[in-house]
């Protein structure tokens, strides 16, 4: 038996006046899944998420969240943790009071000390929100996703403005949420974060999906890349490649292992050092760059 999806979007349309922001969009997120909703600027991600979160009414189509209408806030809100791009905590409240508010609004149970520790704001518990740094404010926003281990967590650009330690700590906490069974929906422009973690990706462009699938499925159609620099003089390359303006050679291939072997054998036979050699699968960045060619 397949369980009911945690999010079920069926033929969603959203219009702002005459402007058609989301067009006939359908997708599902399964329980325990890490789903990344990505896309170009203005693609319709925020509009879609706001509808799922219950802030917007669809122009047409149906949205179900946790088997409820998202407009049924009393039923749905306690089960969701939503980290918005700006949570809008009152500047006059302290960190402790702000986190207390999350508890009051969601009616989930948790311990203040536990959440303060996860977001690394224990020493700032008595500090007013207006006096927090940008990164500290962002960590406070993350408390909304952590408090009471919600069944469904939305992370909207969660790492913007965070230093590397804070980013690592945030992803560790997200891993812990997943271990505890939470379903995660991420939107971000830091594609490598989604590439590393998402089970599936919905890639939006101009109001609809350009592609949807696992990272492997999204990158399958594009070649992998081998890149390197060559010393002053060398014989012709054994494979078709191109020289970038900075002097780096690029070989695009659909047979990475085989072509890498050909290149390494050529370098060995000709006693050539391939400087700054790097080879890797297609990255999501390349999938994004390819969008505008369509
Ligand atoms: N309230 C509104 N009134 C009119 N147009 C709107 C409104 N909100 C969004 N739009 C338009 O709808 C489109 C989708 O916007 P949305 O914010 O959903 O995109 P996004 O994918 O989140 O973009 P970004 O990555 O740039 O944040 C954009 O062209 C935007 O200008």
From TrEMBL:
<feature type="domain" description="ABC transporter">
    <location>
        <begin position="4"/>
        <end position="231"/>
    </location>
</feature>
<dbReference type="Pfam" id="PF00005">
    <property type="entry name" value="ABC_tran"/>
</dbReference>
<dbReference type="InterPro" id="IPR027417">
    <property type="entry name" value="P-loop_NTPase"/>
</dbReference>
<dbReference type="InterPro" id="IPR050763">
    <property type="entry name" value="ABC_transporter_ATP-binding"/>
</dbReference>
<dbReference type="InterPro" id="IPR003593">
    <property type="entry name" value="AAA+_ATPase"/>
</dbReference>
<dbReference type="GO" id="GO:0016887">
    <property type="term" value="F:ATP hydrolysis activity"/>
</dbReference>
<protein>
    <submittedName>
        <fullName>ABC-2 type transport system ATP-binding protein</fullName>
    </submittedName>
</protein>
<keyword id="KW-0046">Antibiotic resistance</keyword>
<dbReference type="InterPro" id="IPR017871">
    <property type="entry name" value="ABC_transporter-like_CS"/>
</dbReference>
<keyword id="KW-0067">ATP-binding</keyword>
<keyword id="KW-0813">Transport</keyword>
<dbReference type="InterPro" id="IPR003439">
    <property type="entry name" value="ABC_transporter-like_ATP-bd"/>
</dbReference>
<dbReference type="GO" id="GO:0005524">
    <property type="term" value="F:ATP binding"/>
</dbReference>
<keyword id="KW-0547">Nucleotide-binding</keyword>
<dbReference type="GO" id="GO:0046677">
    <property type="term" value="P:response to antibiotic"/>
</dbReference>
<dbReference type="GO" id="GO:0005886">
    <property type="term" value="C:plasma membrane"/>
</dbReference>
């Amino acid at each position: 038996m397949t369980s009911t999806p945690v999010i079920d979007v069926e033929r969603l349309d959203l219009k702002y006046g005459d402007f058609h922001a989301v067009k006939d969009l359908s997708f599902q997120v399964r329980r325990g899944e890490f789903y990344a909703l990505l896309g170009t600027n203005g693609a319709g991600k925020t509009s879609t998420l706001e509808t799922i979160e219950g802030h917007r009414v669809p122009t047409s189509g149906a949205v179900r969240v946790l088997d409820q209408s998202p407009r049924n806030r009393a039923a749905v809100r306690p089960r969701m943790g939503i980290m918005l791009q700006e949570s809008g905590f009152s500047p006059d409240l302290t960190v402790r009071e702000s986190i207390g508010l999350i508890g009051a609004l969601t009616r989930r149970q948790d311990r203040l000390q536990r959440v303060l520790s996860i977001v690394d704001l224990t020493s700032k518990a008595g500090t007013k929100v207006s006096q927090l740094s940008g990164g500290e404010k962002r960590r406070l926003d993350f408390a909304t996703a952590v408090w009471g281990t919600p069944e469904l967590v939305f992370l909207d650009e969660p790492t913007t403005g965070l230093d590397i330690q804070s980013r690592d700590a945030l992803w560790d906490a997200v891993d812990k949420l997943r271990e505890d069974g939470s379903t995660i929906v991420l939107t971000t422009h830091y594609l490598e974060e989604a590439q590393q973690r998402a089970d599936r990706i919905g890639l939006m462009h101009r109001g609809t999906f350009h592609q949807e699938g696992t990272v492997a499925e999204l990158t399958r159609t594009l070649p992998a890349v081998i890149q390197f620099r060559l010393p002053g003089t060398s014989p012709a390359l054994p494979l078709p490649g191109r020289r970038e303006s900075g002097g780096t050679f690029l070989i695009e291939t659909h047979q990475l292992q085989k072509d890498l072997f050909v290149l390494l054998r050529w370098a060995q036979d000709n006693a050539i050092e391939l400087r700054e050699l790097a080879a890797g699968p297609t990255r999501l960045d390349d999938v994004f760059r390819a969008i505008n060619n369509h």
